[in-house]
Design brief:
Distance between the termini of chain B: 26 Å
Oligomer: heterodimer
Strand content of chain B: under 5%
Radius of gyration of chain A: 17 Å
Number of strands of chain A: 0
Distance between the termini of chain A: 55 Å
Number of strands of chain B: 2
Largest sheet of chain B: 2 strands, antiparallel
Order of helices and strands of chain B: HEEHHH
Structural class of chain B: mainly alpha
Strand order of the largest sheet of chain B: 1-2
Number of helices of chain A: 9
Order of helices and strands of chain A: HHHHHHHHH
Radius of gyration of chain B: 29 Å
Chain lengths: ~210, ~200
């Protein structure tokens, strides 16, 4: 039994380590070239997508039910708007507090504007791609595998912690942990990945629009 | 009632008492095994928290001395708004330079102490549920290593032995947590079988 638990755990940690590796690679290349060109972000996003889809293919039996259900039923339609509203309130307070302390907040769109890339590319790479692939990775593969070896609530917290630290910025650990908990709860409540994907993509698009205003 | 019946009843009673004793001993052994595994897993995070406090103090002292040296290099009589040329050729007002140096010292203490607090919280979580706590601790530690490498690739080699020891302990903690989880599941199944048999 410990061996079976270990196998589930290894799968979750392997995906986390792989994503950490690609982010590390992106960071090292960005430091070496002394720029954060969106072409590098595109390359890393494509690599991540390929790796995540490979893990998803391995776990297709577990992921199929989460991708078959729409998640937007009469009893669960209110979940995504509720999580979105709570996130909006929390982020307003949290980032407001960070700004009042004079701490810098990273802007996601600057590299695209400086490189002269069209805005739709920023939306594709900052909103759409993470909305799909981060949900598949964290709420799909990782949370499902962790739930094989621990209680669903514990799996939700651990995947949220992994999601937050993977963004590599200590200032946003807390906010992204909250996001991970919200999206993980959506996945548990609706038994579907789609509400989380929609909310995640919509949220990132909203933040991007606010930056570009 | 015949003597044979009375003897059969007495033997059944003895067997039942013996099997209850055996179940109790097994349950006690299960509990001790689980306690040992939980202690191993939770202990890893407690010691890592202590390490982070120690290194937080050390790094804070080193950062304070480095900041004092930098601040001592400011020309005497310089006003807050006077421009100061830094070693990399950039220019910044004296006031901003002083604030930056103080912030570096504060961050050296704060980051390590916050990490120690998180690890201690994970230690407390591990006492109840070691597996999620150890996995979270390992994820956090891997990301910290990556952040260090991205800030300065040479940092990978600095304190490499200690980093490997910490990683080893965390992996050992996960192993212990998995063993505890397996022992708990086996004990629950055994209890369910016995309840069904009774």
């Amino acid at each position: 039994m410990a061996a079976r638990h270990g196998e589930h755990l290894r799968g979750a940690l392997a995906l986390f380590a792989v994503l950490l590796g690609t982010i590390g690679l992106g960071g090292i290349l960005a430091s070496a070239t002394e720029s954060a060109h969106p072409a590098l972000e595109l390359a890393i996003a494509l690599l991540d997508a390929l790796l995540i889809l490979t893990f998803c293919w391995n776990d297709r039996e577990h992921l199929r039910p989460l991708l078959r259900a729409s998640g937007f039923t009469w009893s669960t339609w209110w979940c995504a708007p509720l999580v979105g509203a709570l996130m909006a309130g929390f982020f307003e307070l949290y980032f407001g507090a960070l700004q009042s302390l004079g701490l810098p907040i990273l802007r996601m769109s600057d590299s695209y504007v400086e490189a002269g890339w069209p805005l739709w590319t920023a939306f594709a790479l900052i909103s759409l791609a993470p909305g799909i692939f981060e949900e598949l990775a964290f709420r799909g593969v990782i949370q499902t595998r962790l739930a094989q070896v621990m209680r669903p609530g514990e799996a939700l917290l651990v995947q949220a912690a992994m999601f937050s630290v993977l963004h590599l910025s200590p200032l946003i650990f807390v906010s992204h942990f909250a996001m991970g908990v919200g999206f993980g709860w959506l996945r548990l409540r609706t038994q579907s990945l789609y509400p989380g994907m929609v909310l995640h993509a919509a949220w990132n698009a909203f933040v991007l629009l606010e930056e570009l205003r | 009632m015949s003597a044979a019946s009375r003897q059969q009843i007495a033997e059944a009673g003895t067997r039942s008492a013996r099997s209850a004793q055996r179940r109790e001993k097994l349950a006690q052994k299960d509990a001790e095994t689980r306690e040992r595994h939980i202690g191993q897993a939770a202990g890893v995070m407690k010691w890592l928290a202590i390490l982070f406090v120690f290194f937080g103090l050390l790094e804070g002292v080193i950062a304070r001395r480095a900041a004092d040296r930098e601040l001592a290099a400011i020309p005497a009589g310089a006003q807050d708004e006077d421009p100061l040329e830094l070693a990399d050729g950039s220019v910044m007002p004296v006031r901003e330079f002083r604030e930056q140096q103080e912030l570096l010292v504060t961050l050296s203490y704060t980051v390590n102490f916050v990490l120690a607090a998180i690890l201690f919280a994970l230690h407390l979580w591990a006492l109840r549920s070691p597996l999620p706590a150890t996995i979270t601790a390992l994820s956090m530690y891997l990301v910290l290593l990556l952040l260090q490498i991205l800030a300065d690739p040479r940092a990978l080699l600095s304190g490499l032995f200690l980093k490997l020891i910490c990683l080893g302990f965390l992996l050992r903690g996960i192993q212990a947590a998995l063993a505890e989880r397996a022992a708990r599941t086996a004990a629950e199944r055994r209890a369910a079988r016995e309840a069904a048999a009774a």
